[in-house]
Amino acid sequence: MGSERETGSDQMFSRGTAGCAATFVWGDGYLGYDFGEHPMTPVRLDLTVSLARELGVLDHLTVIEPHPADRAQLLEVHSPDYLDAISAASADPGYVGFGLGSADNPVFEGMFEAASLIAGGSRMAALDVWSGRSQHAVNIAGGLHHAMRDSAAGFCVINDVVVAIRALLDAGAQRIAYVDIDVHHGDGVQAAFYDDPRVLTLSVHQDPRTLYPGTGTATETGTGAGEGTAVNLAVPPGTADDGWLRAFNAVVPSAVTAFRPEILVTQCGCDTHHEDPLADLALTVDGQRAAYAALHQLAHRAAAGKWLALGGGGYGALRCVPRTWTHLLAEVSGRPLRPDTEIPPSWSRNLRSRGVTTTLPETMGEGRTPAPELWMPGGESWLDRSIWATRNASFPLLGLDPQDPRD
């Protein structure tokens, strides 16, 4: 950073915390996960890292290079035939099958290697936290939560989230809480652990009647030994910061705390943003920043500080994702950025040099201060009915009172 940035650094960070021992798993190889002309552009990752670097956020993280997951590790999550299909598609641009070669999941050269690298990075981040080498770890390239055992889905080829959770289970974890705040339901992760009492999967997402993948209703609560360990909170289109955070506060902290996890895994997709082209929620960067702070606090309160944070969706590649995930990186480090921090002029100039003509943000926030109210039973709005449906379906299974707002 230039001297101007360094001089203002004290004003950039909120210093309410002494900082956390945190790892950032990053390598330029992640940029090889590239579908071409497609919403899931690696540009969003590149711009996030460059913004975080210019703001000094990376100075407070231990950055480690990812290594790809090997076949044995991937076979814990995906079938042999599907892994063979990904390998075949990596060398054949005309390949179609197993969800590959579709508009959502077009094939590209090196697909297997790129997807395996992301999965390996999430696995490394998980084990870095579980081993105690760091309190928190983050892989913004991860969070590919739609991939199923036998197929690609929703821009996701290998489900790195499930790879990471399987690694934690193999390492001895007995209670893992997974919280997914992407705008889309975390269906692939839920499917992998729907009958597993060791893993709580909790997804906060846009109502599935209005958005892909069409799953994630409040009545999906797990099966067999896993009954009660799937929690789904579907919020209506148009939900903004205050409403989303009110719903989150009404369900997530109580459910996670009641489960008593040894580690918290979160999928931090930022496609809940009001400018996102693929969904219909209305959060600002400020609301998303508040959500990450809430997850950080929850990790310390409910999981002895062990927190693995992964990326996910987010298709506002210029105005949303770089700011929001830079806030995530800063939060993971324990030195959150102030929302009035100015965007470095050099970062914006770099985009202009690439031919970008879009109006670019000037600060790390949008001038909002979220102020969610406490949820109370009896509300008649769509949002209140959604909160009640989730609490009514899931809270008794977790030993909680659905009508008590203190739960």
Automatic annotation (TrEMBL):
- Whether ATP-binding counts among this entry's keywords is no
UniProt keyword list = Acetoin catabolism
| The organism's place on the tree of life at top rank | Bacteria
Look up the signal peptide feature and give its range.
Answer: none
Its annotated pathway? Ketone degradation; acetoin degradation
Q: Where is the Histone deacetylase domain?
A: 38-330
Q: Does the keyword Mitochondrion apply?
A: no
Q: Which residues form a coiled coil?
A: none
Q: Which family does it belong to?
A: Belongs to the histone deacetylase family.
The protein's name is Acetoin utilization protein AcuC
Q: What is the lineage of its organism?
A: Bacteria, Bacillati, Actinomycetota, Actinomycetes, Jatrophihabitantales
